[in-house]
Structures are given as C-alpha cells and as structure tokens.
Write a structure and sequence with these properties.
Among the domains are: 8-24 and 35-203, 3-Layer(aba) Sandwich (Rossmann fold), CATH 3.40.50; 470-636, GMP Synthetase, Chain A, domain 3 (2-Layer Sandwich). The protein is 39% helix and 22% strand. A 5-stranded parallel β-sheet has the order 4-3-5-6-7, with helices on both faces. The chain has a 5-stranded mixed β-sheet with strand order 12-13-14-15-16, covered by helices on one side. The protein has a 4-stranded mixed β-sheet with strand order 2-1-11-10, sandwiched between helices. Strand 1 (23-29) and strand 2 (32-37) form a beta hairpin.
C-alpha cells in the first residue's frame, strides 16, 4: 500500500504487503502456540470489520472491548478503526458497575468480549445501558445456552463479514481511505485514582507519532518480540502491544493465562518487555524463596556471584571500563548463575525492558541491571500516550525517570508541578470540555498533577502527586507516595498507606505480602489459618517493624524529610483490593476512599490507642461477601534523630 501511513488500518495493509510472511501475533491455547502472519492478520481483521458493518456498526460508533490479551480482541480494535469506529478497551477484571460507567459514557453500541464471564457482566447492566445493542464473544466455552438475538460469536460475525465483503467489494478500502491522522483512534479511560475515570481521546497522530518516536529512539525492529499480558484497558498495553507493534512490525505474544506468564515467557524469549515494579518485585521474591530452599553450596554460589554482579554488572551493561579479572568473574557468573537464572525467568533475550507507574526500589533495580538486563524507567500518563521521559542508555539511575522523550518538552512550575507538551498530548476528555481546559492549556501544555524537579544531569525526579504532598504541623513537607514506595521496596510489604498531613507525626497502614510472609512463616514452622491470622502474629509484626525502621533510617539522612519518619503503624486485617474500591485497577491507592472507609483506624494511630477492634466486609472473586473481625495492634517504630552537621 502506498501513501501516508497515518492510521493503523493503513499501516496494517502496508505491513501485510512488506512483512507478509513475518509473524504479527501469537497466542498460546491448550499448551500450543498458534501464529498469524501480517498478511493473515489483515484477512482476519477485514472479515471482522465487514461483519461489524453488516450488523450496523458505522463510522463514529464506539466499540467496547474486554478480556485477557487475545489476538481476536486486538483485531477487533483495528477492525473498528478500519470502518471509522473507535475502540474502547476496558479492564477485564472490572466489575459490572465499572463496565456500565465506561459503556454509558463512551456511548458504546457494540461490545466484543473474551468469554462467558464478560458476557454475564454485560447482561447484568444491559437494562441500564440502553445504548448497548450488540454483544460478541470470542471464546465459545459456556455459551451454548445463550439464545439472546443480540449475542453473537466472533466467527459468526466474520462469516457475515465475508458475505458482506463479496457483495460490497469496494466498501472496505473506501472506509480505510476515508480516515486520516487527525481522526480519533482510541478512547482510553483513566484509572480513576481521585474519582470517576475519564475517557481520554487520542487521535491517530497522537498515538502513531509517539509510537514511531519511541521505536526510533530505542531501535526497535520487526525482529523484536513482545509479551502482551497487561490489561488491554491500560494505555501502556496499547502502546507496547499495539501501536509500536504496528509501527515497527514486531510480533506480539499472548500468554495462555495470567498463571502461565512466566512459563510462556520462557518459551517465547521476548526481546522487548514492560512490567510495573510489583511484577519485578514478585520475580525477585520468587528468586529469594527458591534460594532459601536451595542447598548450602548453591546459596554460597548465589551470594558470591551476585556480589560480583553488583560490583561490575551495571558497568559492563553500560559499556564502562572493567578490569580483566572482574570481567572474567562476571563471565563465570553468567555461565553458572546469571544465564540459567534469566532463562528460568524468561528474560534471556531481553535487550530492552521498561518499568513505570511507581518508583522502583534501588536494590530491585540494581538486581536486574546487574544481571545484564537493560531495564530502564520511564515516565508518562494516559494523556501523553505514555512517553514523557525515558532514561537514555548509559544514563540509568534508580532515583530518576530520565530525560524528555523525542519531541517532548517538559517544564516545572513555581509550585513544583511538572508540565509537558508533545505530539502525544491527548485531544480531549470525552464529553468533558471543562475538564479538558483544566488539564491542558490552549498552547498544548498538560498539567500532570505530579510534583518533581530536574537534577543537574538533566534527569527528571518525581516526588509525589501535587495534591497529595501535604505539610506536617512543623511545616515539614509530607510526600505520602514517596514514603509508601520506600516501604513497598521490601518483599514482605505488598501495599502501604501513609498519613501525616496536618499531623504531628507520620503513621501508616501496612498490608503484608501473603506469599513472601507466608513462605517466611512456614520456614519458621509458624502455623496460620489465613491472611488475617498471619498478619496478627507477633513475629510478623517484628518483621515489618524491622522494615519500617530501615525506612526511618533512610529518611533520617534526608534533611528535608527527616521528620517524616514513621512513628506508629498497624498491619491491616485484609489486603487492599480494587473490588472493594480501595485501589484503582492499576493498583494505585484511592486515598479519599481510604480516609472515608477507615476513619476509626486512622484516629487510633493518633489517639494513643494500643489496639482497635475492626469488623469489615470483604468481597471474594466468586461474588460472596463475608465479614472479617480482628483486633489490630498499634505498633511503635523507632525514629532516628537527624545527625547534626
């Protein structure tokens, strides 16, 4: 195909011509990988696009999409774009009420979902969502007895599309050619950290130019391989598993399930990888658990060669000078430890890995880079189509998010808020012109809501959300997220919420990591009946206390934050959960909700109480609701006095 490649359908047809026999996407099902080339994917997409048109889907309509990462769901996105429609990917684990908000707000008349679970959610809200007229499922399992005339299989729509295409041979290309770069490409919903999520409108230019700039900066090509395992409703997946895959022409791999991701990674060996810090934390936790169960000699070998890696691994990765002896020892370590370990984790072929969303612990960051994995931090938002700042090769630091990406301008206001302007700046918030005006200026600068500053080396450092940065009663700056991230650097702490604004001292809720603490407890022959019981045990409290006091030691060395050391804390009786409204679907703490839900617990941290009784309802994955009762102990942590200069 010739002409300007300013939409994904045009890029698809170009790839189908240039990269006809190259793999575009793979999926593992029933233990077997199935691949589709770019030319095969184009055929599948054309059939589905024509099928949508035959069912009445037209230019300007929106298509809701929900499910795990599946080729047919990605094809549905492109199919909608082929005929002038707008895909609206949703979080697959969202509850029916969250589906209803997106479908109503986006005016989605059609929905394409993965399976029976998602269809059931749509049926639950159909009476409320009158705009929704057609439902399409990808996986037929469990759908045998669904006879509603508005429910269709993916294959049935494609069969309808083949017939429609034969009867209207010029329709498909006419529709593809009608669209251009300034048209709306996708509607993405924010995580809703501070309230109801907003629909972010991105044009093809926003997405494609941003993707192309990232591809050029990092040297991505059609020979790269990526793993699509993060939610399709998240902007990052739409950049890494969709936009950049089309622009660079590389293959996207869809794992069989969330439980098989590591095994599937090992089989595929991706070269390009993204994961938020919790995923890397989980990988390191698994490594530590395995080493605790290993033999004495294996533990000694691990410790010795990890010391070598920490000493010179990052220098070798950054192509810095290293002595012959150290380079030799590192090669031996790669033979006996680093190589086999990366192979077990599916990271053997990684040449570029990103992390973003939250700060990543320095030790965690160093661990992966010392193994020779080029993991870098980036900074972005849904409104920027991800890229605002990226760490350049050779300039990778654990406490920064890098320098501005290609064609991106960044500046800091007098109040310390980060602003940016770029080709990726969103068009608008869907149906919310006033919020659009609040978020970006007429000349294109976007208010991030993040507090940060540039270091002397030109790298941006993010502290916290501007609205979350408070002041203690002694006028000390209080950045809760900064403190929480330091706590979450420990494998035993899964989540934390810090309090201190307009208070005399800082306190915190802590959620233990059930897997890590459970393994720790089992190795000490500690019996426990579940999360609540384990979190209430004294040895566990002592373990978390040690973590908190290490954070206090770190904070004491910062003159600006020394007074933010944690004085009192409690171990929550349950994990914070998105289904309970405590976290967003991207696992960000909803602070206002926490304040409203747990006022008694917060007050107990400040009124001198030694314990507090709590009763709380929890919602399980199968829909059951139960009540948890527990006596939570308020614990005191040692605070370190700041050293005098």
């Amino acid at each position: 195909m010739s002409g300007i490649l300013d939409t994904f359908p045009k890029i698809l047809l170009d790839n189908a011509s240039r990269l006809a026999n190259s793999p575009a996407i793979r999926e593992k099902d029933y233990g077997i990988w199935q691949s589709w080339t770019w030319s095969e994917a184009a055929v599948e997409i054309r059939k589905f696009a024509c099928g949508l048109a035959a069912k009445g889907f037209k230019r300007g309509d929106t298509l809701a999409i929900a499910g795990d990462n599946r080729p047919k769901l990605y094809w549905a996105m492109t199919a909608a774009q082929c005929i002038g429609g707008i895909p609206v990917p949703m979080y697959q684990d969202a509850i029916a009420e969250e589906f209803a908000h997106v479908i109503e707000n986006a005016d989605a008349s059609f929905a394409v979902v993965e399976d029976q679970e998602q269809i059931d959610k749509l049926l639950e809200i159909k009476d409320r969502c009158q705009v929704l007229t057609e439902m399409i499922y990808e996986d037929p399992r469990g759908m045998m007895h669904y006879y509603q005339p508005f429910i269709h299989s993916y294959e049935a729509i494609q069969e309808l599309g083949e017939k429609f295409d034969q009867e209207n041979p010029g329709f498909f290309m006419e529709e593809v050619n009608k669209s251009n770069g300034s048209d709306t490409a996708i509607l993405l919903y924010t995580s809703g950290t501070t309230g109801t999520s907003k629909g972010v409108v991105h044009t093809f230019d926003n997405v494609i130019i941003t993707a192309r700039n990232g591809v050029e900066r990092e040297g991505l090509t059609s020979t790269d391989e990526a793993l699509a395992y993060l939610p399709m409703g998240w902007v990052g997946d739409n950049l890494f598993s969709y936009a950049q895959a089309y622009v660079a022409g590389y293959c996207v791999n869809c794992p069989e399930s969330g439980e098989t991701v590591i095994n599937d990674m090992r089989e595929i060996g991706p070269t390009y990888y993204f994961a938020p810090p919790p995923v890397y934390e989980n990988i390191l936790t698994q490594v530590k658990i395995r080493m605790e169960d290993a033999s004495w000699i294996s533990q000694k070998i691990f410790d010795y060669f990890m010391d070598v890696a920490k000493k010179v691994g990052t220098d070798i990765l950054d192509k810095q000078p290293v002595s012959f002896l150290d380079r030799f020892l590192y090669k031996m370590g790669d033979l006996f430890l680093y190589g086999p370990l990366k192979n077990v984790l599916g990271l053997s072929r990684i040449r570029l890995a990103y992390t973003a969303g939250e700060a990543i612990g320095p030790d965690l960051f160093l661990f992966f880079r010392s193994l020779g994995i080029n993991i870098k931090q980036l900074y972005g938002q849904t409104e920027s189509m991800v890229f605002v700042c990226i760490q350049p090769n050779g300039e990778v630091y654990p406490d920064t998010v890098g320098t501005p990406a290609k064609d991106v301008e960044v500046k800091i206001t007098e109040e310390g808020e980060v602003l940016y302007r770029s080709p990726g700046v969103f068009h608008s918030y869907y149906k919310e012109p006033e919020k659009t005006k609040e978020a970006k200026t007429e000349d294109g600068w976007v208010y991030t809501g993040d507090a940060g500053y540039f270091l002397e080396n030109g790298h941006l450092k993010i502290i916290d959300r501007v609205k979350d940065v408070g002041k203690m009663n002694d006028d000390t700056m209080f950045p809760p997220k900064y403190i929480e991230n330091k706590l979450k650097f420990f494998p035993y702490i899964k989540e934390a919420v810090a309090f201190g604004h307009q208070r005399d001292y800082v306190t915190a809720f802590v959620c233990i990591d059930m897997q890590a603490v459970g393994n720790w407890a089992e190795r000490r022959n500690m019996a426990y009946s579940g999360y609540t019981n384990l979190a209430a045990q004294k040895p566990v409290a002592k373990l978390i206390l040690e973590c908190i006091e290490k954070v206090n030691q770190d904070l004491s060395e910062d003159p600006q934050l020394s007074n933010t050391q944690i004085k009192r804390f409690l171990l929550l009786h349950k994990e914070l959960d998105a289904d309970d409204g405590e976290l967003t679907r991207t696992r960000k703490v909803r602070r206002n909700f926490i304040d409203e839900k747990y006022p008694a617990l917060i007050n107990a941290l400040y009124d001198g109480s030694e314990k507090i009784k709590v009763e709380a309802q929890v919602k399980f994955e199968d829909g059951r609701v139960d009540t948890i009762e527990a006596d939570l102990k308020i614990l005191e942590a040692k605070r370190i006095k700041q050293l005098e200069n």
